[in-house]
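User: I'm putting together a teaching handout on how multi-component assemblies are represented. Below are the sequence lines for each component of a complex, exactly as they appear in our records. Could you produce the 3D structure of the whole assembly as structure tokens, so the students can see both representations side by side? Please keep the chain order the same as the input.
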Amino acid sequence: VAINSADLAPSLHGDPDTWVEQMYAWGWDDGLPIVPPTPSKVEEFCRVLGFQPDRVVFRMPPSNRRATAGALAANAIMAGAKAEYFPVIVTALVATAQREFNLNALQCSTHMVAPLVIVNGPVCRELGINSGAGVFGPGPRSNATIGRAVRLAMLNIGGARPGEMDRSTLGNPAKLSYCIAENEEASPWEPFHASQGFDASSSVVTVFQAEAPHSVTNHVSSDPQEILMSIASVMATLGSNNAWLMGKMLVVVGPEHAASLGLAKWSREDVQRFLYQRARVSMDVRQFGRPKPERFHNRHWPAWFDRQSSDETWPMVTNPQDILVVVAGGLEGRFSAVVPSWGLPQPVSRKVVVDCDDACQIQGV
Amino acid sequence: MSNQSNVSLVSPLGDPDVSVVEPSYVEAADIPGLTVHLLDNGKWNANYLFSGIEKGMAASVRKVTRSKKFHYSVVADAASLAEIARTADIVVTGVGDCGSCTSCSVHDTVELERLGIPAVLISTSNFIAESTLQADLLGMTNIRIVEIEHPIASRSREYMERLGQQISQLCMDLMASPLATA
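Assistant: Of course. Below is the structure of the complete assembly, with chains in the same order as your input.
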């Protein structure tokens, strides 16, 4: 493992008290201070997966620059990550490079979409990735720096700087860092990654094109239907991209709500079906109460949506299984969260990469 | 590290690896014999703009063909672009009027130019800077753009069709003119 001299950037010089300011001047940051990506640290990170630093892993839009292992490591170091986090960071970024994730849209959209990283399996305990109280942050170091490393790579390699190629109208605090683990111990169901077809004992990273989490409170119900009516109420909003583009929605069920659902023997599929039935917006509302046109054109809605029906309601996603259900959060508090998505693109789940060859499976780089 | 006065760092920017793309041109005298393809990204009201362009070009070229992308915020797949390049002589893409759709239509435009097909992008005024920056990143510093007023989604069908007719000649002119004098 050796750094090519061509990959070296301007060096830090002079008084160490000025180094933070020197790095700000280079524009590699996300507004927060960064850790210097020294050659020795980059080599340490690359060694974890057996990478040569100049090995190309994939191309990242919108710049279509080649993401070398050294550049990925540099961004992870700048984020404050430890070397042992690097496989999860690389896995998340490789997952975003799959065509169905449509990273180009995430990077450039006027929407406030951010890449939510969801981690399952033994790696969560090994790295101390938080799945419990305060799961969406702040901290701990693993959640904060894994999410930040993904975003710094998108800024620096992908070139999506706010106001330039990132045209998000409002931005999103989750664009600084957005990483959670599932609280598998508090879940009454099989782990989320097992529901997606992975072995429950494996470690899996899922990336999801997400809005910020929307809080759901229900302190008064133990009945599953009443709890899920609260969640459905937060899902069924006209302002959500899902109302127009369908796609997926994520429901993060808090452990107290999950325990009530489990006690009543509700399966994950029961939850999905109920939310699909109850999280609905009428066609009249979707058309803003305007007089009906001959045919309201929206090719993202299924053909079986009756555009002429005023009083019937229609779901936020096309199928019940498009509602992803994950359990996370602290054991106290009757809260859950709804995370709408950008819409059309697909979340991608992938086993944590084991070495550089495993990471470099995208063709045409 | 605190005792060092100079510390080398590794660039976090990755490898640009960009090949330069220059626009292709057609001879003005040849335009009446050419097939024009309109690659509609499916943005709200873009279809009416392209209907206007089609109407405006109909008498000036041999044939106008149209297609609509699966979604405005995806880059057209390589097979679709190759088919367009095989069957058309010049292409009009767009409409860029949001962040992701603009970027994706620029990708389409530059890729068509890589395939040797003169292409022009229609973008709204608020997304011209993104269009040129995106094209620069992809290696094309002189992308052809026809600028229209932002936004388009709230315009009437009649406005869009009329605008399409108005810009149709400009789209053709840009294909035949050196950019410096366009």
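A couple of points students might notice: The radius of gyration of chain B is 18 Å. The CA atoms of residues 19 and 61 of chain B lie 32 Å apart.
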